């Protein structure tokens, strides 16, 4: 596999802001799901880092492994999921020296969880306990992870609601008495209860409508500036990440296909999948464009195709793609060494893909009958 | 309301014949303790063959209730629904079935709307048998349906159960099931919002293809106003059970007149807006007024329903509910402050002429 001329020969595996050590550094992480039909390679040798105060967006469609990646990294998965390789180095301000989350003893991990790395789960309705009111749930978190007298914990529960813009009168409310947006705010308040360094947000606004979504995102950004935590933001909505994130990692079939700053990804998306995702959104502003979406569906990860996993759906694919080694290398036309892509062939200025009929031929696979 | 319906032409009317009319339709729900939720209030619109009308609004705005009323799933509190010019009267089981063969519904969640214990074939054969009797050649018809929604090879998919299909494939089965009745009207309630971003467009393109091929009158319910821009002829914006603005899709999205529509448009993620309000952080201004969280009590019962959140609201807005007034031949908005909200649109507004005369 020869790289095109002018490409940086050194793999830029993890990228973070220069001059800053990452607070979370995921290296070479692989996660499989053990099934009777063979291992499903849900996350395949992924490198990703998070700098202090940074918002990293993790984008990809359902089943791309984005949740498995962060749950694997934080050891929240249980059998049949199995972390088969890698390290996850955490270096927050409160820990004396960097630790590898994957090698911590259970009690050490327990001290780190929530205190240092908190998670806002996807479905606020299911993640809150329906038979406890908001205050009891907040106090429960505070007691489990911080030593604090009961009065102080109560006061903290109140101030946490202030933080996310919910009136204190709602402390006595049960989850079903809150609107979807309020529930999600309570989830965010719970995540922030222990003043964590890293907050992982797994599709926190997906079920909400746009006005509420925007409100909550603005609040998250405000809190981040105020409290100084870092965010891993998981979503399938790439257009949202372009506005919200500092850097974006695009995930597909368990692998990262492209990493770059939001500006770079917007200005010159390199990987055909990223291009496809960007072209999947009807835009509200500007002239009406022809939108294509991405025909087909992701590959079966029990038996992934050789080379690039996106090949069967790729408009630019050639036989050389079957041998590509999926290294993240600097985009040849980009001045930013942090902008890396797994596709050595397609450059940002490569012309638009041919019409759909040709695509199927090039890819050498039928698209009409989507494999399940 | 009826008066302005004569002066306002639907942007969808040019596409084809009138198929369905909702005339001053309202629906109240009793929620106990003598309280009533006005889920849909005095809503009028038309559906035309071969045209898409989008109903846009946030959760709880009444858009799904409106669709359920059209589908005959809920009884009207007041108003009339006409199908092919005749008022719909469902007195008997058979009436309902006849109605259903013309008006079909596609649900949001393809995981919940298919029966997990039946195969794809069963889901398609049943409506064929129900609506078209025993004489029909179901095998060919089922195969044709599968082809129409591009689930091919049909034989491979017909024997599958819902859990063996991807979300997109399930939604295709839902479309095929709706088509099996050979409807003239298709009510699609957030048909793509549960699907992955990468296949949403494909599914909308499929719906568009079906609309064209069968000249379907389609109601497209969504909270994604950007998709309405691409997919619909006319957009109706609903808020708290009322239509607050309506007009041609492109005009509504590019030049929204009502403050609520403006808020909706401003809230949609904008990839071209790097470093937007979102990223300004502490010093950034919130994109909307001070009212962040609404409680039911704050939903005004008198006056304009949006007045509690509206940055332009004045006393009149809190006291009187504005009616939907035409702005142009195809556009209308319900707002007292249109002069301030959309100054570039208002000169032609009869209301503003009246005020200047006074």
Task: Count every beta strand of chain B, where a strand is a DSSP E run of 2 or more residues.
Answer: 12
* Structural class by SSE content of chain A: alpha/beta
Q: What strand order characterises the main sheet of chain B?
A: 6-7-8-3-9-10-12-11
Rg over alpha carbons of chain A? 21 Å
Portion in helices of chain A? 25-40%
User: What percentage of amino acids of chain A are in beta strands?
Assistant: 15-25%
**Relevant CATH superfamily of the domain at 2-84 and 184-254 in chain B:** P-loop containing nucleotide triphosphate hydrolases
Distance between the termini of chain A: 31 Å
Q: Cα distance, first to last residue of chain B?
A: 24 Å
Compute the number of strand runs of chain A.
12
What is the ordering of alpha helices and beta strands of chain B? Answer: HEEEHEEHEHHHHEHEHEEHHHEEHH
Arithmetic mean pLDDT of chain B:
83
Q: What's the CATH topology label of the domain at 2-84 and 184-254 in chain B?
A: Rossmann fold
Mean pLDDT of chain A: 83
What structural keywords apply?
heterodimer; A: 8-stranded mixed beta sheet; 12 strands; 28% helix; B: 358 residues; Rossmann fold; 4-stranded antiparallel beta sheet
Could you give a short description of this structure?
The complex is a heterodimer of chains A (372) and B (358). Chain A is α/β, with parallel strands linked by helices and 372 residues long. Chain A contains eleven helices and twelve strands.
How would you describe this protein?
The complex is a heterodimer of chains A (372) and B (358). Chain A is an alpha/beta fold. Chain A has 11 helices and 12 strands. An 8-stranded mixed β-sheet of chain A has the order 6-7-8-3-9-10-12-11, with helices on both faces. A 4-stranded antiparallel β-sheet of chain A has the order 2-1-4-5. In chain A, helix 4 (134-145) crosses helix 5. The radius of gyration of chain A is 21 Å and the shape is globular. The relative contact order of chain A is 0.14. In chain B, helix 4 packs across helix 5. In chain B, strand 11 (325-326) and strand 12 form a beta hairpin. Helices cover 35% and strands 20% of the residues of chain B. The two termini of chain B are 24 Å apart. Chain B has helices at residues 2-7, 63-70, 93-102, 120-132, 138-148, 154-158, 167-180, 197-214, 225-231, 249-254, 259-267, 315-319, 338-341, 350-357, and strands at 18-30, 36-48, 52-56, 78-83, 86-87, 103-106, 185-189, 217-222, 234-239, 242-248, 325-326, 332-333. Chain B has a domain at 2-84 and 184-254: P-loop containing nucleotide triphosphate hydrolases (Rossmann fold), CATH 3.40.50. Chain B has 358 residues and is an alpha/beta fold. An 8-stranded mixed β-sheet of chain B has the order 6-7-8-3-9-10-12-11, with helices on both faces. In chain B, strands 2-1-4-5 form a 4-stranded antiparallel β-sheet.
């Amino acid at each position: 596999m020869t790289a095109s001329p002018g490409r940086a020969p050194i793999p830029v595996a993890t990228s973070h802001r220069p001059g800053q050590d990452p607070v979370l550094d995921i290296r070479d992480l692989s996660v499989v799901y053990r099934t009777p039909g063979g291992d499903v390679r849900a996350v395949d040798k992924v490198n990703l880092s998070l700098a202090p105060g940074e918002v990293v967006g993790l984008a990809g469609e359902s089943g791309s492994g984005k949740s498995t990646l962060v749950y694997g990294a934080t050891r929240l998965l249980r059998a049949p999921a199995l972390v088969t390789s890698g390290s996850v180095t955490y270096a927050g301000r409160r820990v004396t020296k960097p630790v590898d989350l994957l090698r911590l003893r259970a009690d050490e991990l327990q001290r780190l969880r929530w205190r240092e790395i908190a998670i806002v789960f996807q479905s606020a309705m299911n993640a809150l306990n329906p038979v406890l009111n908001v205050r009891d749930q907040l106090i429960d978190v505070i007691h489990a992870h911080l030593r604090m007298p009961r009065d102080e914990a109560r006061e903290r529960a109140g101030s946490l609601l202030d933080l996310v813009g919910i009136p204190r009168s709602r402390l006595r409310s049960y989850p079903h008495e809150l609107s979807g947006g309020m529930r999600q705010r309570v989830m965010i308040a719970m995540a922030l209860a222990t003043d964590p360094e890293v907050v992982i947000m797994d599709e926190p606004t997906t079920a909400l409508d746009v006005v509420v979504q925007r409100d909550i995102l603005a609040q998250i950004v405000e809190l981040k500036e105020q409290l100084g935590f870092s965010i891993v933001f998981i979503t399938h909505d790439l257009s949202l990440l372009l506005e919200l994130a500092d850097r974006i990692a695009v995930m597909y079939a368990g692998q990262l296909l492209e990493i770059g700053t939001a500006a770079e990804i917007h200005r010159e998306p390199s990987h055909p999948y990223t291009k496809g995702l960007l072209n999947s959104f009807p835009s509200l502003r500007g002239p009406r464009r022809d939108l294509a979406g991405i025909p087909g569906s992701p590959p079966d990860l029990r038996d992934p195709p050789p080379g690039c996993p996106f090949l069967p759906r790729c408009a630019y694919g050639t036989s050389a793609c079957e041998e590509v080694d999926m290294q993240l290398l600097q985009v040849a036309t980009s001045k930013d060494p942090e902008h890396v892509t797994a596709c050595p062939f397609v450059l940002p200025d490569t012309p638009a893909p041919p019409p759909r009929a040709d695509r199927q031929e090039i890819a050498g696979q039928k698209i009409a009958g989507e494999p399940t | 309301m009826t008066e302005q319906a004569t002066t306002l032409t639907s942007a969808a009317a040019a596409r084809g014949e009138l198929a369905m009319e909702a005339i001053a339709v309202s629906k109240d729900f009793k929620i106990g303790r003598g309280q009533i939720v006005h889920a849909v209030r005095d809503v009028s619109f038309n559906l035309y063959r071969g045209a898409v009308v989008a109903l846009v609004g946030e959760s709880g705005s009444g858009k799904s209730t409106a669709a359920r009323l059209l589908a005959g799933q809920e009884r009207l509190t007041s108003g009339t629904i006409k199908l092919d010019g005749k008022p719909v009267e469902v007195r008997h089981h058979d009436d309902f079935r006849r109605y259903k063969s013309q008006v079909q519904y596609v649900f949001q969640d393809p995981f919940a709307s298919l029966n997990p214990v039946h195969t794809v074939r069963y889901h398609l054969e049943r409506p064929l048998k129900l609506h078209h009797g025993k004489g029909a050649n179901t095998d060919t018809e089922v195969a044709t349906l599968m082809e129409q929604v591009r689930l091919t090879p049909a034989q491979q998919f017909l024997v599958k159960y819902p859990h063996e299909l991807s979300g997109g494939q399930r939604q295709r089965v839902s479309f095929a099931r709706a088509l099996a009745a050979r409807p003239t009207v298709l009510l699609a309630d957030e048909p793509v919002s549960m699907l992955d971003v990468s296949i949403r467009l494909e599914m909308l393109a499929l719906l568009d293809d079906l609309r064209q091929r069968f000249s379907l009158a389609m109601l497209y319910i969504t909270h994604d106003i950007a998709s309405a821009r691409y997919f619909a002829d006319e957009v109706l914006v609903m808020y708290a059970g009322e239509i607050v603005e309506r007009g041609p899709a492109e005009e509504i999205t590019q030049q929204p007149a009502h403050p609520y529509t403006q808020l909706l448009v401003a809230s949609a993620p904008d990839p071209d807006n790097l470093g937007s309000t979102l990223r300004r952080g502490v010093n950034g201004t919130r994109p909307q007024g001070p009212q962040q969280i609404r409680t039911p009590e704050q939903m005004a019962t008198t006056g304009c329903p949006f007045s509690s959140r509206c940055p332009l609201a004045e006393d009149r807005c809190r006291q009187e509910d504005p009616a939907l007034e035409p702005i142009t031949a195809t556009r209308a908005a319900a707002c007292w402050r249109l002069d301030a909200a959309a100054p570039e649109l208002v000169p032609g507004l009869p209301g503003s002429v009246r005020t200047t005369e006074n």
